[in-house]
Amino acid sequence: MLLDAVSEVELFVNVFIYVYILAILAYILTSWVQLPYSLRPVQRFLFDACEPYIRLWRRIVPFRVGAFDLSPMIAVLALIALNRILIAVLDRLH
């Protein structure tokens, strides 16, 4: 029974982190283009969901290369590292 619960938590962590990474990538792509009026709520949702996390990384590592802000890349790498750490901790519970 505990193994099933740990496996479900692992699955939830994996799915949550990868969906959030996809949301960050969508946020980056939508910030480069002017979307039609009908898609602006989607762009606003992505901004509201992703910008606080990316802003955290901008304050910690204010690193820009020319006009490019690399904080989303650092944020995604941190999420991947967090995912691996959490999965390794949960694997020890098996």
Summary of the model, kept short:
This protein is mainly alpha-helical. The chain contains three helices and two strands.
Summarize the topology.
Blueprint: H1 2-32, H2 40-60, E1 64-65, E2 68-69, H3 71-92
Helix pairs in contact: 1-2, 1-3, 2-3
Description:
The chain contains three helices and two strands; from the N terminus they run ααββα. Strand 1 and strand 2 form a beta hairpin. The chain starts with a helix and ends with a helix. With 94 residues, it is mainly alpha-helical. A two-stranded antiparallel ribbon has the order 1-2. The chain is flat. The protein has one domain. 7% of the residues are buried.
Feature tags:
single chain, 94 residues, mainly alpha, two-stranded antiparallel sheet, 4% strand
Helical amount: over 70%
Percent strand: under 5%
Give the CA-CA distance, first to last residue.
11 Å
In total, the number of domains comes to 1
Secondary-structure element series: HHEEH
Spatial sequence of strands, sheet with the most strands:
1-2
Please identify the structural class as seen in this structure: mainly alpha
Radius of gyration: 16 Å
Kindly state the mean pLDDT as a whole number? Answer: 90
Largest sheet: 2 strands, antiparallel
Low-confidence runs: none
Number of helices: 3
Strand tally, please? 2
Looking at the structure, what is the overall shape? flat
